[in-house]
Amino acid sequence: MNNTDIVRSSLKKRYAKEKRFKAYGILSIGLSLFFLLFLLFDITHKATPAFTQTYINLDIDFSHKNLRLEEKSSYSEKELFNASYRKLTSKALYQLFPEVKDRREKKTLRKLVSSGAQYDLRDLVIANPNYIGTKQSIWILADDDVDTFAKDLIDRNLPEVQRRVKDNQIAWIDHLQAQGKIQKELNTKFLTQGDSREPEQAGIWGALKGSLYVMLLTLILSFPIGVAAAVYLEEFAPKNNWFVDLIEVNINNLAAVPSIVFGILGLAVYINLFGVPRSAPLVGGLVLSLMTLPTIIIATRAALKSVPPSIREAALGVGASKMQVITHHVLPLAMPGILTGSIIGMAQALGESAPLLMIGMVAFVADIPQGFLDPSTVLPVQIFIWADSPERAFIALTSAAIVVLLIFLFLMNLLAIILRKKFETRW
């Protein structure tokens, strides 16, 4: 074999290795996309039932007797609020199924509608006082088990002991469906209400608003401090100084610290030492600011390093001061990288739950927070709470909340790309 044959054989083996390596890379990307799409499909499929809700049409008698109101021309909002709405749906169901006489069967019949229906009727009467003394056809929110059954998520062929919906309830549901008194509507409560023990009444608005408060506070605190610290370390701090080196090492270490450690720090310092209200967006924002700071500092320093030294030298050459060089030339050119790193850090903070569990944001909060000091929870913690709930309807709510969280994360990353393209400068 001559030298030419040896070279050709060597080249052939090298090209074969390159083809195999390329094939492995394509296979890896394909598998990653497959598992990602499978995950998204599975979550979306499980979340779909949560975006609709089952309602039952009942003839509600808003008589003065049923509401326990004195007959008069007008009522104050307080009087309407304190009126009795608890038995309105029960009486309507009894009239619809007069053959039900047994006390236990009546109790089972009442479970067709949500236990929170009385509060929906109260709000309806407060908004429409003219309903008093009349009988109205109202669509009432169904119980979560009825809703799950109506969505074909419960197999009617299973033995009665293995399902939450009883045989007589199935017969009543079939009767209502035959009369057109059951329908599915868009589940607006999911996006407009806070948490609830009843799946059909539960929503993510409280957690969503809490997340917005926490993220806003985290951005206000971490962005200016992180950028200022990065500018000092990169532009002003003395080189080869042991103290500066110690700070840099600690910043890099903090970026790798488990997030729950920041939760323990927030519990010990902010809550126990300074008395910041537990479960409030204020303490959540303070904790996540500590966690986000290292990411913003590291990203900002990398962006500042990417600015060519010739920019600084040219600005100094025409008489600009050190601060003018940084504020007028370096920072504007580094801004795309700074914004990208900051938004990625904020997106990471949005998905965190461990540090917020330590500061009490895992508590059940039904009210919508109105400020930074009100008790609240956040989306990741709300997902954690619902995932641990025994009711089957919470499975769909958990998946739907995950979809909402993924949408927010997608929008934040999209914003980072848009800002980078908008402020990017090529030289």
Give me some keywords for this one.
427 residues; mainly alpha; MetI-like fold; 18 helices; 3 strands; 5% strand
Structure overview:
By secondary structure, this protein is mainly α. The chain folds into 2 domains: 139 residues, no CATH class; 219 residues, MetI-like fold (Orthogonal Bundle). The chain has 18 helices and 3 strands. A 3-stranded antiparallel β-sheet has the order 2-1-3. Helix 10 runs antiparallel to helix 15, helix 13 packs across helix 15 and helix 17 packs antiparallel against helix 18. The longest helix is centred in the first third of the chain and has 45 residues.
Layout of secondary structure:
Blueprint: H1 3-47, E1 52-61, H2 64-67, H3 77-81, H4 88-96, H5 103-110, H6 117-127, E2 135-141, H7 144-150, H8 167-178, E3 182-186, H9 189-192, H10 205-236, H11 242-255, H12 259-273, H13 281-305, H14 309-317, H15 322-350, H16 354-358, H17 379-387, H18 393-423
Antiparallel strand pairs: 1-2, 1-3
Helix pairs in contact: 1-18, 10-13, 10-15, 11-13, 12-13, 13-15, 14-15, 15-18, 17-18
Radius of gyration: 31 Å
Assembly context of the chains:
single chain
Q: Segments where pLDDT lies below 50 for 5+ residues?
A: none
| Discrete helix count | 18
The count of DSSP E runs of length 2 or more, i.e. the number of strands, is 3
In short:
With 427 residues, the protein is mainly alpha-helical. It is built from 18 helices and three strands.
